[in-house]
Structure prediction request, 354 residues.
Amino acid sequence: MQHKRSASTPILVLLVAVTAGLLLCGTNGCSGSGGTTMTRSWDGPINGKAVFRHVEKLVGFGPRPSGSKALEHTVQYIQSEIEKLGLRLERQEFSIEEAPGITFRNLYCVIPGTDEQKRTLVVSAHYDTKKTEGHPKPEQNFRFVGAMDGATGPALLIELAKALKDRKNVPTIYLVWFDGEESIPYDWPEDGIGSPLALIGSRKFAQWMMAEKIFPKVMVLYDLVGSKDFKLDRDTFSNKSLQDMFAETAAEMGQGERMYEYAQSHLIDDHRMFLEHGDGAVRVIDLIDFRYRTDAKYDRMQHGDKSGIPPEGTYVRWWHTPEDDLHNVDPVALDFCGNLLLKTLPKIEAKYYR
Ligand SMILES: [Zn+2]
Prediction:
């Protein structure tokens, strides 16, 4: 599939495209050959362009698998951005027997809240990228920089830190950057939740929180967000009330159709570790755009609601391919994702932190 940057498209070509019906603009943005970009129909402190600049920076470090030099550069970048805000970035370093020679690093930043009971909320994303070198099959080896899968989530957390430190938060907020989300073997282990070779950082962090008796009432995870033609999946493991709250906010922002439009997804992701280790007491939500980003063969994996399949060609299938790069990122979608959380937070506080 070919993709074009509309910014670099000459006007004449654009006119021809419009005449030919190839460029379609509606209330939610314009659709070209590279996917639909959103139009900002909301206000809020998160600036998508600022988030995008962090994404550019992270992608610029190149492939960033666990234990790589490029991931160390990523850590330094996140640290300097957080320290610029006058906040402190903590590191949780560890290794596991099953992956000798790799030092994993979870990063976190604590923003104290006003709650007398010191209740907590986690906002998180993984910042490692899938390792796509040194694998046995030729098709498993390619350059993978993980824009949506490893950069947009961590970039959003930086801008959220900026907004949250100036907000009067009820819960104490843990912003967490997970290492080792991606599986060590190329193919995800059959039992992704039970296997020690995937979801490594979130497993460690959830276990640590529970051991410290820090039981977050809510855990929000960003993964694979911010692409063109952005939409969120209804993950079957996420808390239904939380999903409804986010959907209500999205509708208030004029973007209701971005939420849960198609059949449900059954996701193996970092949020599952908080379900596993939190004895079901942690309400989790995975804000993820996954299902129709995968190879078309996964479309047959139906779970729950079987109604509605997006029209062919609606979604760029960039997941775990070289297509997951900057030209598929939409800064306005990032703006939406950040402000969506900030606008949902008062509802979360009213319901769970009264
Ligand atoms: Zn991935």
Remarks:
- The pocket of zinc ion is lined by residues 130, 149, 182, 320 (CB under 6 Å).
- Helices lie at 11-19, 48-60, 69-84, 152-165, 200-211, 240-252, 271-277, 331-352.
- Strands lie at 24-26, 29-32, 35-37, 90-94, 104-111, 120-126, 172-178, 218-223, 283-288.
